[in-house]
Every structure is written in structure tokens, then in C-alpha cells.
Amino acid sequence: MSGASTVQMHDVTSGVIIRPATLEDLDELYEFTDQVHWEVSKETLKVLLELVEVGHYLVADLHGKIIGSYLIILLDGKNAMCNFLIVDQKYRGSSIAKKIVARTMENAGDRNVVIYSIYNRIQSNIKFGLKIGGQHVHLCEGRFDVGTLNSDAKMNHSVINVIPANEVDFEALLTYDTSINVFQRKKFLKAWLAKPSAISFAALTDGGEVVGYGQVQDAPRTKVISPLYADNPEAFKLLLKALLESIPTESRVNMFINVDYEAGMEVINKNKGTVKMLPEERGTFMYTKRNLEIPKFGSVFALTCIGSFPA
């Protein structure tokens, strides 16, 4: 960047205000997020704005226009998770990202901060002091053939029952959700399940034990599965089948998946002609102070909201 360009950029960014986002910003924040082609619906952003602590969804405001954003969720007194770090392409390379990250770290306090990093940001994040954790994720998108989800004939079909999630005792569903995410998110889960476009199913044993649940919802250009948890391959296939059959046949599906979930990767390989990994390199879990152990990450196929919660 030339000296003149540097001065000009400084003049512009000196007018940037880092401030809390509010519901009044929803329409503009949605358009801003959509500029980078993230499959995030307006109703999802609304849930996040309503649920995060005041001042923890930050935007960079330049003369009334949003040119940057960053979100932090305080998981508990020791851990926090960040997401939605976006800077308008015109202002990348300026100090905006540093400013909004610095303010976000102030909100984190002494907490351990964890993120999911896309592949091409891993080395940059290492330079900022983050370390590589254990879980690996991949953005997956395409059309699935429901016929590839036929269950193994050796499995007992009567063992797992898939029903609408609203027919399941909420506390039982919350207990299962907490077993996956470690951190209880009662208020979030209620709001997540209640989104207008959301269709959710739960997998139960004959004894009524929850062994998985999943949700599909609208997004700007696709449908998004977020999350899909299942403790065994049978529950996984039945949940994914129910979710896919609840949306139009030709719908494209978008999700962040656990690349070590064997049953899921088998299905993706059967659909490799219509389902792609984007990009080809996987992303990874990163942290500032200590790795965040998720004991049941093996039950996670698709994440809820990338970077907002561990699963």
C-alpha cells in the first residue's frame, strides 16, 4: 500500500466507531453478512442479537454505515466463543479488524477464547497467539439423495423413533443438548427451536431416551442443517432422512460438519457427485489459553451455529 493510500485509509478509519449492535441494525446487519455469502438467515441474526449480552455483538460504524462486525458469547466464567468477524472488503487491511477484536477481547476479560478457524486463517490466528485444538470441521453443501440413507438391514428399526422435537419434553432435550455442548444454553435452545422457518426432529429409544436431534432452517440461498446430533448411525440416518424429507426435494443443503463423524462421511461419499466440501481444506478449533474438551463431539455431525457454540 502506498504512503498516500495509507494516509487516506487512516483518514477514513479514524472516523470508525465500535459500538453494540441493536435490533434496529438487523436489516443492515443481515445485508452486510450476506455480502460475504454466509448462509445466515435474518431470523438467526435476530436470535443472536436478542440473546447475547448487551454490547457483545459489536459493529464497526462509519458515518452510520456498518463496515465490520464481531460477536462473542460468554459460555461461562472461564470460556467465551467468537464468531462473525467480518470487515467490508473496501476496508480490509486497515485497523478496523484490530479495533473490533480488541473491544471483543475486553468483553472476554480473562476468559479462554475459542473459535473455529477456516483453513486459510489458521496461520494468521497462530500469529495472534491462538493454538490449534482438537475438533475439525468442514463446510459442506449440496443435494442429498434420500435413497442413500437406507438403514443397515442388520439394525433393529424399532429401537429408534424419530418424532417432531416439539413433542419431546423440553427438559429432556435440554439435558441431551447440554451433554453435547457441555455448557447449558436453555434460553438459546428455546429460541433456536422456535425460529419461524425451523423444522426440528428428535431421535428417541423405545424407552424414551433422547439419543439425537436435528434442525433444518431457511437461509438466503440454501437450507441449513444446524445442528444434527446423533449417538449412533441409525439415529443419524433417520434424523437426516426426516430433515431432508421436510424440505423441497431439489433444495441445496448447507452445514458445518464434523469430518470425523464416520456415518456422516459415508453418506457424503455416497453423494459426492452432488455434495461438495467448501473449501477442500478443513477448518479447525483454536483457543487462547486451553483446549476446550467436548467429550461427546463424536455425536456431532452438523454444528448449531459455527463459532457461537462448541457444537
Plain-language structure description:
By secondary structure, this protein is α+β, with helices and mostly antiparallel strands. It folds into 2 domains: about 5-110, Gcn5-related N-acetyltransferase (GNAT) (Aminopeptidase, 3-Layer(aba) Sandwich), CATH 3.40.630; about 140-300, 3-Layer(aba) Sandwich (Aminopeptidase), CATH 3.40.630. Helices cover about 30% and strands about 30% of the residues. Helix 2 crosses helix 3 (about 40-50) and helix 3 packs antiparallel against helix 7 (about 185-195). It is globular. GO terms for molecular function: acyltransferase activity, transferring groups other than amino-acyl groups.
Mean of residue pLDDT? 92
CATH class type of the largest domain: Alpha Beta
What amount of the residues lies in strands?
25-35%
What is the architecture of the largest domain at the second tier of CATH? 3-Layer(aba) Sandwich
Low-confidence stretches: none
- What is the CATH T-level topology of the largest domain? Aminopeptidase
Q: What is the alpha-carbon Rg in Å? A: 20 Å
What shape does the CA trace take? globular
In helices, the fraction of residues equals 25-40%
Number of domains: 2
Structural class: alpha+beta
Give the CA-CA distance, first to last residue: 40 Å
SSE arrangement, N to C: HEHHEEEHEHEEHHEEEHEHEE
Count of separate DSSP helical elements = 9
GO molecular function: acyltransferase activity, transferring groups other than amino-acyl groups
Pfam family, one: Acetyltransf_18
Domain N-acetyltransferase: 16-160
